[in-house]
Amino acid sequence: MSLKIGVPSKGRLMENTFQWFGERGVAMRQTGNGREYSGAVEGIDGVDLVLLSAGEIPRELAAGRIHLGVTGSDLVRDKLADWQAQVAELAPLGFGHADLIIAVPAVWIDVDTLDDLDAAAAAFRAAHGFRLRIATKYHRLVRDFLTTHGVADYQLVDSQGATEGTVKNLTAEAIADITSSGETLRANHLKVLSDGLIHQSQATLFLSRAAVWDAPERAALTLLSSRLGLSVPQL
Amino acid sequence: MTPKAAIRAEAEALFAAFQAAGAAPVEADILLPAETLLDLYGEDIRARAYVTQDPLRGEMMLRPDFTVPVVQAHMTHGADPARYTYLGEVFRKQDHLGPRASEYLQVGYEVFDRTAPEAADAEVFALFARMLAPLSLRAATGDIGILMAAVRGLNTTPRRKAALLRHIWRPARFRALLDRFSARTPQPASRARLLQLLATDVPGVLIDQSASFIGLRSPAEIAARANALIDDAATAPIAAEEAATLDDLLTLSAPAALALTHLQAIAARMPAIRPAVARFATRLDALAARGIDITTLPFEASHGRTSLEYYDGFVFSFHAADPGLPPVASGGRYDALTAVLGQGKSIPAVGGVIRPGLVAALKGGNP
């Protein structure tokens, strides 16, 4: 069997990934007519390219259906429980930077820290009869972060898109979402908590611990990692 | 692995022993409405319990423990006083891949009795100790009631006490608040800036100037907290000596009889905990009367602070030698929970659970 490497199937993430590997002497390209989700790795034997949605790569790594995969470090931490037991981080790739942060309405002059958010949540629950709502799609990361910092009296509400609009639409009081420039937050009258940085994400090359690692896959990995200048964890 | 049949047999034996001790067997639903549990435990319970969606009943949870359904059943149609026992599966998601079970049996014993809470504490602990005696477990005990009394007795504002009480079960946040209230850590820079602005403008003006208003949290609520921050800034810090006494209390760890001496010494500096320490002494007498050696029984004032947050008095657990194993048994007093679930009614309650799976494994020599 060959070593399968999963790469985001479109857009800047795919282009940057191809460029990162290309600079290190591993040429990746899309095959077919450019809309077809198939690809090839050239200049190295026994490595297959699998084009996938970045959001599905964590799951495919956990299941062992791909040996290596490129995706956001935020997605792996959020989608995989006990992620370090399931995958290993081989290399941060230096692009796809985004910060997962907690933001509240800019008009909340009394709230700047998690300590403030916690106190506001207690008062909010007493006044409104329900726990302060934080809209996010990063449930595990946000909950773990708030638990670690001892914030109580909140609830997470699911928001898969346009999360910055939930406060204005009265479906949440605060949000936890990724931001790169903060432009969208400001446009939606939100501000970031000064200690509300949950995770600094970037595109990262991961290795699946669940994949089949027989002699051919190990040989391909050794070759690939020496080409990329990476050290390989114990399998 | 211990065979399931052996675990079931062990569970039945424990269940029978609790009934022989005078408890009435009760049943509880496995599918529970998630909202009650979420309101009680907060969002953290989602990480530990299986949540599922019912098209008609909304979010449901696979029973993470028996306490809530048993208390609810008692508050709706229970006798007073009452002793209950139950046997069944509970379900807990695990954070790490590994041997910890996500589905296991629990056998429990709960006492609802108004007459003599300390005697009921001793009854439950002594019963568990006797039933588990062949396993030579290490016991641990604590008393959240003393900590709560100490916080309530602090010489500071009701608002600060309420903030500390709310975080008794979150030691890190409790510590951060106590350090700030006692001026051991400075206030955040943003707080200082805000207070400076509030010195010249009322909150309403700052709110109007800051940004477009959005959201459900009203300007009045924002202004109310801003005013609370002004009040808090004008409040004297908790005296260093008082904060140090509270630290002594939080870190107290000693055999129970010796702990009583320490607690009495702390109570001399902190009179507010005297009634709670008197109850501790009464409990020790009751434990001794039931044959517990209080000169060796371990006591830690902070024991039980990181468990599920409803214990508000005596807490206990029993542990195997392997620190990697979960407690074989645990329990405590949860008077406030009965008030929350009782819709106006409340009754002092104490109880605990045993994990028959661990008991069977320890007996079989393969935990």
Q: Largest interface by residue count?
A: A-B, 48 and 43 residues
Question: Number of domains in the coordinates of chain B?
Answer: 3
Strand residue percentage of chain B: 15-25%
Overall geometry of chain A comes to elongated
Number of domains of chain A: 2
User: What would CATH call the architecture of the largest domain in chain A?
Assistant: 3-Layer(aba) Sandwich
Assembly context of the chains: heterodimer
Mean pLDDT of chain A: 93
Work out the radius of gyration of chain A: 21 Å
The overall average pLDDT of chain B, rounded, is 93
**SSE string of chain A, helix = H, strand = E?**
EHEEEHEHHEEHEHEEHEEH
Main sheet: strand order of chain A? 4-1-5-12-6
Gyration radius of chain B, rounded: 23 Å
Tell me the name of the CATH class of the largest domain in chain A. Answer: Alpha Beta
Structure commentary:
Chain B: This is tRNA synthetase class II (G H P and S). By secondary structure, chain A is of the alpha/beta class. Chain A folds into 2 domains: 3-97 and 202-228, 3-Layer(aba) Sandwich (D-Maltodextrin-Binding Protein, domain 2), CATH 3.40.190.10; 99-200, 3-Layer(aba) Sandwich (D-Maltodextrin-Binding Protein, domain 2). Chain A contains 8 helices and 12 strands. In chain A, the strands form 3 sheets. Chain A has a 5-stranded mixed sheet with strand order 4-1-5-12-6. Chain A has a 5-stranded mixed sheet with strand order 9-8-10-7-11. Chain A is elongated. The model of chain A has no long low-confidence stretch (mean pLDDT 93). Chain B has 3 domains: 1-135 and 345-367, BirA Bifunctional Protein, domain 2 (2-Layer Sandwich); 138-183 and 239-319, Bira Bifunctional Protein, Domain 2 (BirA Bifunctional Protein, domain 2); 187-236, no CATH class. Helix content of chain B is 48%, strand content 17%. Chain B is built from 16 helices and 12 strands. Chain B has helices at residues 4-20, 34-41, 44-48, 67-77, 117-132, 144-152, 158-166, 171-181, 189-198, 203-210, 219-234, 240-250, 256-269, 274-289, 335-341, 356-364, and strands spanning 24-25, 31-33, 51-54, 58-62, 82-91, 103-112, 138-143, 253-255, 298-300, 314-319, 329-333, 349-354. In chain B, the strands form 3 sheets. Chain B has a 7-stranded mixed sheet with strand order 1-5-6-12-11-10-7, sandwiched between helices. Chains A and B meet through helix 5, helix 6 and strand 9 of A and helix 3, helix 8, helix 9, helix 10 and helix 11 of B.
